[in-house]
Amino acid sequence: MIFIFSENVSYSARHVARYLLKEKQSFEVFLETDKIDFCYNLNSSGNQISILKNGQFLCSYTDLKSVWAHRSEINIEKKQYSKLERKELSYVKRHEDTQVKSIRNLLHKKKCLGRFGKLNFNKIIFLNACQELEIRIPKTLITRKKDDLIPFFSEQRNGVIVKSIAENFHHCVSISQHEQIWQHGTTNLLDEVKLKKIPEEFDLSLFQEKLDKKYELRVFYLDGICFPQIIFSQKHSFSEVDYRLGLGESEMRQGNFNLPMNVQGQIKDLMNSLDLNVGCIDIVVTKQDEYVFLEVNPSGIFTDMVGNCNYDIHYEIAKYLML
């Protein structure tokens, strides 16, 4: 049995499922609203663990072969309490967290693509890991005070961009049989006009130097293998700061790229350090041919790579889960 944990609308999960069906593989998809539970029977004669989906027996833990943690966390049945005190609610929360961690631990012991609890990745942890491995990152300021931001802004000759410290939000706002429309959080340019309007204190934000790009790379990483895509985002004003704003534009060229071996080695070392075996890494190549790492997306959005680079990533994921 193969488990796929996916958000309710996922083009990639459907394509991987088609490959599994073609290969006559037994699998089950857990969507965001589906509940998973484990029933434990532990004794000296042997352990038996049953897996339940929405309260119904699904399979034995021993029959579970592999798991794909794709854009959805573990969801358990939670009782609704309306009249509990804060201390009592705190206990209930600890009880639920213990249940989730126990399930997560058992799923991670199987062949698991992706890591539960890491789908919304902390960019600060990513930047620290890059520094420890001596991987080049942009000059960065993380602060909530305008007094810190003003001198940093003045020092960056090419400008400053601002982004969330967590993974950018994304959700599907429209769906049909042949088309999906998504909304995404984006990276934005900070200019002097915007700087003047910023209050003295604000939510913790991540500011970085705006790099002088030669081109941009998005690398899908799958268990030690890199699938790189080049993106000429710097050639157009609509995609210069955030290439995602140009994904629907035919003028923005994208294609295959031959990634240097030393950069592949850096990516492997970084993903091992972060305990991630799948994800997309965004990299800027500057006009001085420096490879500057921006961030990692553990959920690994790669649908545009399939068409632009002719990578059959859906098959590669299915193969990982089957073998």
Automatic annotation (TrEMBL):
Protein name: Grasp-with-spasm system ATP-grasp peptide maturase
A cellular component annotation (GO) from this entry: cytoplasm
Family annotation (SUPFAM superfamilies): Glutathione synthetase ATP-binding domain-like (SSF56059)
Transmembrane segments: none
GO aspect biological process, one term: SOS response
The organism's taxonomic lineage, starting at the top: Bacteria, Pseudomonadati, Bacteroidota, Flavobacteriia, Flavobacteriales
GO molecular function: ribosomal S6-glutamic acid ligase activity
